[in-house]
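Bug #77: duplicate submission created two jobs. Keeping one. Sequence:
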Amino acid sequence: MYNFNYHRPLSLKEAAEYLAAASDGTVMSGGMTLIPTLKQRLANPSDVIDLGGIADLAGISEKGGAIVIGAGTKHADVAASKVVKKQIPALAFLAESIGDPQVRNRGTIGGSIANNDPAADYPAGLLGLGATVKTNQREIAADDFFTGMFETALEDGEIVTAVSFPIPKKAGYAKFPNPASRYAVVGVMVAQGPAGTRVAVTGAGPGVFRVAAMEKALEKKFSADAIEGISVPADGLNADIHASADYRAHLVGVMARRAVAAAG
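Kept job's structure:
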């Protein structure tokens, strides 16, 4: 691990000031990705700004037909939340499926989406539910937030503060997990509600994406049978020791049908 300056601010304003003053600063939330990266000397920031001491960044509430989750909220808290289980049970299920108990009790929703791992669960949750990411500077629709592998629309000095999920009429999440890491080999969030009918896929490609053909079919009839036979091309999908591109393409259809059945 390289040397760096460590800061633990107690307010968002203080965090933004530390970040602005750093020559090459980075923000840490749960640290589930950053700490291993630092240990392996794959990152060399001048400053690490730990958001864990900012109490205002954590919490879950229902406001104006949406569930608002603070960026510092742990995965375990989302999974256990009574309001999330009542209004968006698919989101609680998604959070419960992340990693293991140690990861769920340290990792945060803000850290997960800012990192934007191509096999993470939350990007599919945000895109599938038509969520809005709130930062210390603006609001960003999920459709615009995830821009590429480990890349987002966040600009220098911008910090995620919360995520707002419109409450859907129905939603379901299904994933084929890597048995070791519990990351998604393929995960699919399907939802129908204020944001329309949406099908979002994680794990299959270099970034989270929607499947328009499935969305169109589900608008006419929201059932697993409606998307039977609809497939995604294997070209451009991930291929590794865990699954080929063709297998991932097949899994997209299987997980999408399971997600629809769960939503129903």
